[in-house]
Every structure is written in structure tokens, then in C-alpha cells.
Write a structure and sequence with these properties.
Strand content: under 5%
Structural class: mainly alpha
Distance between the termini: 106 Å
Oligomer: single chain
Number of helices: 36
Radius of gyration: 31 Å
Helix content: over 70%
Length: 818
């Protein structure tokens, strides 16, 4: 029979592997998921944490040494979670608060897993070697992602390109999220540089060897079974090595780094061998970090450096280090000033990061949007005593943003107008959990810093105290402009766990001893744990993954499915979803719109159109205070009027009673105006369009909407006035705007007005297509001379249309039929 100690070892090994798997999660992405950079990560994280926590419960049951211990920091984390639970129950969007959505994968269910992850960390791992091993593995993972980002920098085409353009993203899908992740690892590397013997070089080398083995094995499997579809296991057979040969700079850099790792291993007993490896790693990852062009993260790092250098001036350290600190402080203060003073010079303008940093001002679009969003956040947070104390509930920030929508952030149709985060940790926590939640969150940070102060007093170790304080400062400062994601949360809770360990070891905490009492295993307890684990993994998480994948298939392969098959897929994606039900319904409505545009409205198509309405109505009824659901449904109904002429009336019935949910949002009035126009009530349509313009009087797109309404409703004099108003605002029409005006006049067959604006269009875009259209308009006006001249000009620009254009010219000479 297996002894109790053996079982404990197996369970601890399982948990150890689970924590490494959690640290592996940030690299995960899968293209066959809706939100491929987010959903696969979070579902894998939840599954791993559930397995790990169940293993921990079994371990604590049979081995008294691992029974839960609660420190002040642990209680503060539990308290913060508890406040979030209360805010969920008392909030206004229970479903969103609990499950979140596909885009964020947050909410109480997600937060619960973070707490469970933390509890496992602090109750199982009680040796410095364990903690240093986890931090070492995180650096290994950040190294892999940095090389993937380096491939993006070099534009290596066989790997995943950056979704941030010139800003590097690796597997995060967002440069800001990637920068925040690297920020943690830069401090981790610095922590090991301070004392290289902490670094687990054995684990680091083994990890890279395992990765190299994967590269070799994957290319072999690719050669043997490259054409076979292994589903999710296709990741096991990739031609990375084969394709990489075409990029010598990328390959040589990777090989050279591996050589440095090998040298550090063979000379590990020599002083500075491992430090040299870490210094090279730090330089490389900082370069990648800098190329994310993320201002908040760079400023957070800069602020942290300033604070740390100031602290070091008063610390008991050798004079040479104080001299280095003074030099670093001077550089940290002077360099930003130099960059800003040189903001118009080529060396700043030609560098994406420096240019973005130098462009920071209160008039900067991003900065202004943040400030306006924060103002709206405060209005909602302080709305009444309840919201101030306990907030609106997790993942319910958008209620506040919608109600107090800051109209100034709407600059054009490309503006971001739907915010589910304030991009500020204070307001994000305050709005969703109130001042109580914010106090409990700040207590976590306060206790962490206080604990590190105690560590410093006890050990005099700057790297094990104030270096980690610097990390907290950088993390908090960059979160003042963005928000957390799983990629940083797993590292943040790891740091909190490590601080808990450091405080425990430096304050004389006694280790638990093995009890001499004979322990009997409660098999019913173990069975219950197994059932809970199976339900959580296979019913909730695998079910969520399947529903998300079904949604992806329904969207991606829509053209290969019949309307009935697509309807079934979308219904399964909606009904089987634990998370993201609203998003699945929205995608269903987009599919229905595409079907109507691409075919005649057959009974089957009409069934899908109306079925999508029913699904969107469920979203409205489930979250009646969410104006976005009302807006989405109303816009869908307006767009589907060709399928059912009664839809605009429904659109009006949905939006008009709910204007108060977002009274300052111009788009509501434009959508209502559109609905009234479709019903033929032109005065009412004009009234609502006018209200929308009055809310955003300096936004040209608002005026364009009103101008289009005037034209299509044959209010031509008003259209002329509106056009002049736009010009007076400094508007300089481009080809797109002129084309929209021409199209609008085309709907009323005002060919004289079409001619005027087509001539203006050709003035900014002299294309064959534009001349051909102008020729057709001249022909409609009976001006054959100019029609012929325009057609000939079209041929001159593009001879490939000569056959068709000559036929048009010949038709001009044909006798007119009476």
C-alpha cells in the first residue's frame, strides 16, 4: 500500500506541475476560438487551477503540514473577493458580474480561481527554492514570448504577426497587455541579478532543452503527418524549424542566446556567469518591452526607478552603489526632459515609443479620452450612497459609462464609444465595488508593502524588499492607465504569494510538524472532491470551450453551411454558453444581416432574421439597463427593414423609452431618427437627428448623418445649409464624403446635384471609375458632349475599360426612342 508520505509527494508534484502550467498559460492562444488570445488562456487557467486546488484539498486532508494558514495579506485577498461577491449580489447585472464575457473572461467565477491559485501557492510552497523556481520559469516563458515578439519585429512571416502593427504583441494580442507582462519579468530578472545564486539555472536550462526537443519533434511529426488534421493537437506538428532557416537573423539570434545559456550552465560555478546570462536576458526583454510602445508601462517603470534610486540613497549600501544610484536618478529625471524637448526632431519622431511618449499632453486624444472617462466614472460612482459604498458590481462598469457618456470622446465614427473599463485601477475598482472594495484592494497593496518593509528590517536585503516594492509601484502606476488581464494577474498573485512567504520566514513563523496521530483517509471526502472536479472541468470549462468554438465555426464557416445549419450552430453556441451568451447573439444577428444582403429574403432567411430578433430581445430582457443591448437590437431592426417593414416601429418602441439609460449618447438619437425615417415620419426623424447633432455639434460625422437625412427626404435647402455649416467648422471633404453625398442624391434622382458633387469628387480622386460615373450622370442630364468627354477621360486613365466605355459612347449617338 502506498504510504501517506508517498501520496503527499505525488500530490505536491502534481501541484508543482500545475503552478508551472499556470505560468505557461500566457503563451497560449488558439485561432479556432472567438477571441483567440483570451478565451483559450482563461479556460486552460481555470482547468489547471481546479485540478491543482482539488489536489491541494486532498493533500491538506492527509497531511497536516499543509493545512491552511491565514496571514493578514491572505485575509485581505479573501476580503477583497468577499466584497466583490457582495457587490455582485447587490449589483445590477448578475450574469455579467458572475461570468463576464468572452472579450474579458473576468467576473466572480474568474476571481474565485485567482484566489484558489493564491491559496495553493501560500499553503503548499514553503521553501525558497520552490519560489525561485516559479520565478525562473516565468522568465523562461517571457523569453519565449520575447523571441516570438522579436520575430514580429523582424516580420518573420511563418509565425504569428503582431496584431498591434508596429507595436509588438507576441501571443497577447495587445501590446499593452504584453508590456505589463514583461514589466513583471524585468523585475524578476533584476531580482536574480542582485544575487545570482537564487536563479534556478537547472530549471531554466531544462525548460529550454524541453522546448528545443519540442521544436525537433514537431518538425518530424509535421514531415510524417503534415496533411492530417489532429484538431487541437496540431500544435504538436509544426514546421517552425524548417521555416526558420529562411530567416538567418532570427535563427542566429536564437541560437546565440542558447549558446549563452549553455555557457552559463557549464561555467555556473564561476562568478558572474549566470549574472551575464541574466544581464543579456534583461537587455533583450527590455528591448522588446520598449518596442511594445506602451506609454503607461514605460512611465510605470520610470517612476519605479526614481523611487528605488531615492530609497537607495538612504539605504546602508556601499558608496559605489550609491554613486550608481545617483547617476541612475539623474538619467531618469533628465532623459524624459530631453525626449520632450526634442519631440520635433527626427530621432524622436522616427522612434515609435519615444514619439508616443513625447506626444503626451492634456490635449492628446488618448489622454483627453481617459480624463473624460474618469470624470464619467466619478459621476456614476458618487451617484448615491449605495453606489459609493459597494458599487455597481464586477463587470458592470459600462452602466456608469453609458449613463454619463462623455460626448466629447465622440470625434468621428471611428471613435471608441463603448467602454467596459475606465482604464484606471482606482475607478475600475471603485465603480464596481465601491469605496469598500477600493479600501480592501488598497489594503492588499498596503500590507504587501508593509510586509516587505518588515523583511528589509529583518534581513537588510534590498532585493528581497524594496526591489519588490519597486515592482508594486511600477505595476500600480501602469494600472493607473490600463487594467489587469490574466497575463498579469497570475504574476501579481505569484508576487503576493512570494511576499507572504518572505514575511513568514523573516518574522519567525514556525513550520508545521508532522503529526504522530494515525490519520485515516475519508474516502467520501475524496469522492466528493473528484465529482466536483469532474463537473467543473468537463461541464463548465469544457462546455464553455465547446460553445465558444461552435460560435467560431458558425462565424468562420458560414458560407459553407445552409441557413438552417448555421441557425443550429448559433443556437448551440448560445444555449451551451456559460460565458459570452450576449456576444453569441450579436454575432448571430450579424450573420442574419449578411444573409439578407447576399440573397433574396426566402422563408428560411426570414425565419433566421426573426429568430435573431428573438435572441437579441432575450439579451434586452436579461439586462434591461444595458443600453448597448437596446441599441444593438434597434440598429439590427432598422437594417432588416427590407425583410420586415414592421421592424422600425419595434426599434422605436425599444429605444424611445430607454433614452434615459444614456441620454448624452448621440447615437441613440441617430438610430431613432433612422427608425422614424423608415416609417415615413420625416419631421420626427429630423427632430431626433437634430438632437444628435446638438449633442456633438463639432463632430462632422454627426452633421453627415443629418445631411444624408435631409437629402434622402428631399429637404434640399436644409441640406445646402447643413453642408455650409460643415464647411464653416473647418471640414475638408475627401473622396469618401463626396461619394456618400453623391449616393444620397442618387436615391432621390437629383442628377444635377450628383453632377456637382461628382465634379468635386474627381477633384480629389481622379479615377476611371469616377469619370465613368460622371459620364453616366451627364447622360441622364442629356449632356451628351460632357458625357462623351468624361467617358473618354475614363478610357485614358484605364484602357482596360475601353470596350465597355466605347459601347457607352456609341449609345450616346443612338437615336432617342419616343
Amino acid at each position: 500500500m502506498i504510504s501517506k508520505n508517498q501520496i503527499s509527494k505525488y500530490l505536491v508534484t502534481t501541484i508543482w506541475a500545475g503552478i508551472l502550467a499556470v505560468l505557461f498559460v500566457p503563451v497560449v492562444m488558439h485561432s479556432k476560438f472567438f477571441f483567440p488570445f483570451i478565451v483559450p488562456k482563461d479556460i486552460l487557467f481555470r482547468i489547471v487551477v481546479e485540478i491543482t486546488f482539488i489536489a491541494y484539498l486532498a493533500l491538506a486532508h492527509i497531511d497536516e503540514r499543509y493545512r491552511p494558514r491565514f496571514t493578514a495579506l491572505t485575509w485581505s485577498i479573501i476580503a477583497f473577493f468577499g466584497v466583490n461577491v457582495i457587490a455582485t449580489v447587490t449589483g445590477i447585472g448578475l450574469y455579467s458580474s458572475f461570468w463576464g464575457n468572452y472579450e474579458r473572461m473576468s467576473g466572480i467565477f474568474h476571481q474565485l480561481h485567482l484566489v484558489l491559485y493564491f491559496l495553493v501557492l501560500v499553503n503548499v510552497f514553503r521553501t525558497e527554492k520552490d519560489w525561485h523556481g516559479f520565478i525562473t520559469f516565468s522568465i523562461f516563458m517571457s523569453g519565449l514570448m520575447s523571441f516570438m515578439a522579436f520575430a514580429q519585429y523582424l516580420q518573420v512571416d511563418f509565425l504569428m504577426g503582431s496584431s498591434g502593427g508596429q507595436r509588438l504583441t507576441a501571443t497577447m494580442g495587445n501590446p499593452t497587455f504584453f508590456a505589463a507582462y514583461l514589466l513583471f519579468n524585468l523585475f524578476f530578472i533584476a531580482y536574480f541579478i542582485a544575487r545570482e545564486e537564487r536563479f534556478n539555472i537547472r530549471l531554466f536550462v531544462a525548460s529550454f532543452l524541453a522546448f528545443d526537443g519540442y521544436l525537433v519533434l514537431s518538425v518530424v511529426l509535421y514531415e510524417l503527418a503534415g496533411t492530417n488534421d489532429w484538431g487541437i493537437l496540431n500544435i504538436l506538428k509544426t514546421p517552425i524549424l524548417k521555416e526558420a532557416i529562411r530567416y538567418p537573423v532570427f535563427v542566429s539570434t536564437f541560437v546565440l542566446y542558447q549558446a549563452v545559456i549553455g555557457a552559463a550552465w557549464f561555467f555556473r560555478s564561476k562568478k558572474f556567469a549566470i549574472t551575464s546570462l541574466l544581464a543579456i536576458t534583461l537587455a533583450f526583454e527590455f528591448f522588446i518591452f520598449f518596442e511594445t510602445q506602451t506609454r503607461g508601462a514605460v512611465l510605470g517603470l520610470l517612476l519605479s526607478i526614481i523611487v528605488l534610486t531615492v530609497i537607495s540613497l538612504f539605504a546602508k549600501i556601499p558608496k559605489i552603489y550609491k554613486g550608481i544610484a545617483i547617476a541612475a536618478l539623474v538619467l531618469a529625471l533628465v532623459l524624459p526632459a530631453i525626449v520632450y524637448a526634442s519631440r520635433n526632431m527626427a530621432w524622436v519622431k522616427n522612434n515609435g515609443t519615444l514619439n508616443r511618449l513625447a506626444s503626451i499632453s492634456l490635449r492628446d486624444v488618448t489622454t483627453e479620452s481617459r480624463l473624460l472617462t474618469w470624470q464619467a466614472s466619478w459621476k456614476g460612482w458618487s451617484e448615491n450612497p449605495k453606489t459609493f459604498l459597494i458599487g455597481y458590481g464586477p463587470e458592470n462598469y459600462y452602466y456608469v459609462f453609458n449613463k454619463y457618456f462623455p460626448t466629447k470622446i465622440y470625434r468621428d465614427n471611428g471613435s471608441q464609444i463603448w467602454f467596459d473599463r475606465s482604464h484606471n485601477i482606482i475607478f475600475d475598482v471603485g465603480v464596481t465595488t465601491g469605496i469598500i472594495g477600493l479600501a480592501s484592494y488598497m489594503a492588499i497593496i498596503g500590507l504587501a508593502v508593509w510586509g516587505l518593509w518588515l523583511v528589509c528590517r529583518k534581513t537588510q536585503s534590498i532585493s528581497q524588499s524594496f526591489l519588490l516594492v519597486g515592482l508594486i509601484i511600477a505595476y500600480f502606476a501602469q494600472n493607473f492607465f490600463v487594467f489587469d488581464t490574466l497575463n498579469t494577474e497570475v504574476l501579481w498573485y505569484l508576487v503576493l504569494g512570494f511576499i507572504t512567504y518572505l514575511v513568514g520566514t523573516t518574522t519567525g513563523e514556525k513550520k508545521s510538524e508532522v503529526s504522530s496521530e494515525v490519520h485515516r483517509t475519508n474516502y467520501i471526502y475524496i469522492l466528493v472532491l473528484a465529482i466536483v472536479l469532474l463537473f467543473a472541468v468537463f461541464v463548465v470549462n469544457v462546455g464553455a470551450a465547446r460553445a465558444n468554438n461552435l460560435l467560431f465555426i458558425a462565424i468562420k464557416d458560414a458560407s459553407s453551411h445552409s441557413v438552417a445549419e448555421s441557425k443550429t450552430l448559433f443556437h448551440r453556441a448560445i444555449n451551451e454558453a456559460w460565458t459570452g451568451r450576449f456576444e453569441a447573439r450579436q454575432q448571430y444577428s450579424l450573420y442574419a444581416q449578411g444573409v439578407v444582403r447576399g440573397s433574396s429574403v426566402s422563408p428560411a432567411v426570414l425565419d433566421v432574421v426573426r429568430d435573431a430578433v428573438a435572441e437579441l430581445e432575450k439579451s434586452v430582457s436579461e439586462e434591461p439597463l444595458n443600453i448597448r443591448h437596446h441599441m444593438w437590437l434597434a440598429a439590427y431592426l432598422n437594417s432588416m427593414t427590407p425583410a420586415d417593414v414592421s421592424f422600425p416601429e419595434k426599434s422605436i418602441a425599444i429605444l424611445e423609452p430607454n433614452i434615459n439609460l444614456s441620454p448624452t449618447r448621440p447615437h441613440i438619437y441617430f438610430e431613432l431618427g433612422q427608425a422614424y425615417a423608415l416609417t415615413g415620419d420625416i419631421p420626427k426623424a429630423t427632430e431626433y437627428f437634430r438632437k444628435g447633432v446638438d449633442l456633438a455639434p463639432n463632430v462632422i460625422d454627426s452633421h453627415m448623418s443629418l445631411l444624408a437625412l435631409y437629402i434622402v427626404t428631399k429637404q434640399f435647402d436644409a441640406a445646402d445649409v447643413e453642408y455650409k455649416v460643415m464647411l464653416d467648422l473647418g471640414w475638408k471633404p475627401g473622396a469618401t464624403e463626396y461619394r456618400q453625398i453623391v449616393d444620397a442624391y442618387g436615391k432621390t434622382e437629383r442628377f444635377d446635384r450628383m453632377k456637382d458633387y461628382m465634379e468635386l469628387l474627381i477633384g480629389v480622386e481622379s479615377s476611371a471609375a469616377n469619370y465613368a460615373r460622371l459620364a453616366a450622370i451627364y447622360a441622364e442630364l442629356g449632356d451628351k458632349k460632357n458625357a462623351r468627354a468624361a467617358a473618354e477621360k475614363a478610357i485614358e486613365i484605364d484602357s482596360s475599360i475601353s470596350t465597355e466605355a466605347n459601347k457607352f459612347i456609341q449609345s450616346l449617338d443612338a437615336p432617342t426612342k419616343e
